[in-house]
Amino acid sequence: MWVFHLLFLTLLSAVRAQEDLRGRSFVFPQEGVAHISLTSAQEEPLQNFTVCLRSFTNLLQDHALFSYATKEQERDIVIYKTYWRKDPQYVVYIGGEEVDFRVPDSFLMWKSICVTWESETGVITLGIGSYDLARRVVQKGYCIGPDAVIMLGEVAWRTSGGDAFSGEIKDVYMWNATIPMGDLRSTTWESLSPSPIINWRNLQYKIEGNVTLV
Ligand SMILES: *[C@@H]1O[C@H](CO)[C@@H](O)[C@H](O)[C@H]1NC(C)=O
Ligand SMILES: *[C@@H]1O[C@H](CO)[C@@H](O)[C@H](O)[C@H]1NC(C)=O
Ligand SMILES: *[C@@H]1O[C@H](CO)[C@@H](O)[C@H](O)[C@H]1NC(C)=O
Question: Which bound ligand lies closest to the C-alpha atom of 28?
Answer without folding.
Answer: 3
